[in-house]
């Protein structure tokens, strides 16, 4: 990006182009170790204990977290925090390697999965699961909830009925760790049982290959038990997965840290790329009983970082960030004149950018509150682009971090980031310039 900004005019505003070039120069963005290329995505988790329970496309690899924890210098027993925990990758690695951990996510399904993964189970729980599964085989009944109607069209009727039967059985169980584990197994099979797959910013048609829903559920539970038997959290460590916004991190940290210090904060936030996590996970949220239909999802969405165009618009923000928002705003009329069409979606992007960076600034403030001087935060993040204008999220988070009590340790590029083919065709420089990076922030004295 440094070379590009030096040699080619990307932004109409010369103040913006110069400012970004100065950030790029100041932070001296370097290259990450070769293997990070593979570790910034979830595929390396595909067969790893715990991580393999639920395929979380937007997740990073456990191996990356092990590396970052080691780099952070956190001491065993300290808390490793992930304020955007998703499927709990950071938290699982933490408890398996001797750290306490806290994960937050506004998606209640994510918080639940994380909490389930970092919990401790014993022989009694496995025995209870065995009994529950045998009772499930003879269980008949269970009626769909009203909100299930909003998602039943995504399933073949027999699979849908089976899912409702299993969920009704789980709903009737007394609260227990065994029941929690089985519910996590249930949530983890929903997408495979549907005629959809996650793709881009939502769900795409894809016929289910599951033949026997109940057997598939039992296989998932067996796989989870096998993982827990093989690999267990280290003695004496505790983990929490809580449903809350990262903007409440400090309060949550204080309430569960039990005198322990934050060793490091590691996360991958939503990117400023218009992606709506709640749309993507709606089947699990509704059938899993985490949200009361699309209205319930809309309520949850309001707590999310404003990385999607339906987010509440924000008009004012940091003046430098505003330069980017304005740059995109001013490029819209030319695009609309070229295509002859109003682009309602892109019109919302400038306010989304303002909202996104205001939210992320608050998250960085919260991170600084949790850490002692010298404590590190690692952020794994993609850049994005609109109308050929690069939104260099890594540089901008580093810049905001500096205002909230951090010094930038380093920024390393892990791999190229992707954008739509349409944008690539029109702005070929995006192909090699857009990047996915890791930003290291060090808490000031
Ligand atoms: C890139 S994903 C994290 C994936 C995670 N690193 C993993 O390996 O599974 C970002 C997560 O941020 C969550 N999120 C969005 N807004 C949030 C907020 N305000 N507070 C906490 N989590 C939020 C999303 O629900 C999503 O799970």
TrEMBL record:
| Keyword match Transferase | yes
Spell out where the chain crosses the membrane.
Answer: none
- The DNA methylase N-4/N-6 domain, residue ranges: 55-108
* Keywords (A to Z) from UniProt: Methyltransferase, Restriction system, Transferase
> Which positions make up the signal peptide?
none
UniProt-listed Pfam families: N6_N4_Mtase (PF01555)
Which residue stretches, if any, does this entry annotate as coiled coil?
Answer: none
Which InterPro entries would you find in this protein's record?
DNA_methylase_N4/N6 (IPR002941), SAM-dependent_MTases_sf (IPR029063)
Provide the protein name. Answer: DNA methylase N-4/N-6 domain-containing protein
């Amino acid at each position: 990006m440094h070379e590009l900004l030096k040699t080619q005019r990307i932004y109409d505003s010369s103040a913006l182009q110069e400012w970004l070039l100065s950030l790029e120069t100041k932070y001296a963005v370097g290259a990450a170790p070769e293997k990070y290329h593979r570790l910034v995505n979830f595929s390396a988790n595909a067969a790893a204990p715990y991580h393999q329970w639920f395929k979380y496309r937007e997740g990073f690899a456990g191996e990356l977290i092990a590396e970052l924890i080691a780099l952070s210098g956190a001491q065993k027993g300290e808390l490793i925090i992930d304020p955007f925990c998703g499927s709990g990758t950071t938290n699982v690695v933490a408890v398996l390697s001797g750290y306490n951990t806290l994960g937050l996510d506004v998606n209640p399904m994510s918080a639940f999965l994380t909490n389930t993964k970092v919990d401790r189970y014993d022989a009694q729980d496995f025995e209870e699961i065995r009994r529950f599964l045998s009772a499930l085989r003879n269980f008949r009944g269970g009626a769909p909830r009203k909100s299930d109607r909003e998602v039943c069209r995504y399933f073949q009727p027999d699979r849908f009925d089976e899912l409702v039967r299993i969920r009704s059985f789980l709903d009737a169980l007394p609260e227990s760790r065994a029941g929690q584990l089985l519910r996590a197994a249930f949530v983890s099979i929903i997408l495979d049982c549907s005629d959809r797959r996650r793709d881009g910013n939502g769900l795409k048609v894809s016929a289910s290959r599951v033949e026997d829903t109940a057997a598939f559920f039992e296989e998932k539970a067996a796989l989870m038990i096998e993982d827990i038997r093989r690999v267990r959290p280290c003695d004496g460590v505790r983990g929490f997965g809580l449903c809350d916004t990262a903007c409440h991190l400090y309060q949550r940290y204080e309430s569960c840290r039990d005198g322990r210090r934050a060793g490091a904060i590691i996360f991958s936030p939503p990117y400023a790329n218009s992606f709506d996590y709640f749309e993507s996970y709606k089947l699990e949220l509704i059938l899993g009983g985490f949200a009361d239909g699309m209205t319930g999802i809309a309520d949850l969405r309001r707590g999310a970082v404003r990385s999607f165009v339906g987010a509440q618009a924000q008009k004012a923000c940091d003046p430098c960030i505003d330069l980017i928002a304005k740059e995109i705003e001013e490029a819209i009329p030319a695009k609309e004149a070229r295509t002859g069409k109003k682009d309602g979606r892109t019109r919302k992007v400038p306010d989304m950018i303002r909202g996104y960076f205001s939210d992320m600034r608050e998250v960085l403030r919260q991170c600084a509150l949790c850490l002692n001087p010298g404590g590190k935060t690692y952020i794994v993040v993609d850049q994005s682009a609109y109308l050929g204008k690069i939104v260099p999220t890594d540089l901008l988070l580093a810049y905001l971090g500096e205002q909230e009590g951090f010094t930038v340790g380093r920024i390393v590029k892990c791999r190229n980031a992707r954008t739509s083919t349409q944008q690539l065709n029109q702005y070929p420089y995006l192909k090699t310039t857009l990047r996915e990076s890791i930003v290291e922030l060090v808490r000031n004295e």
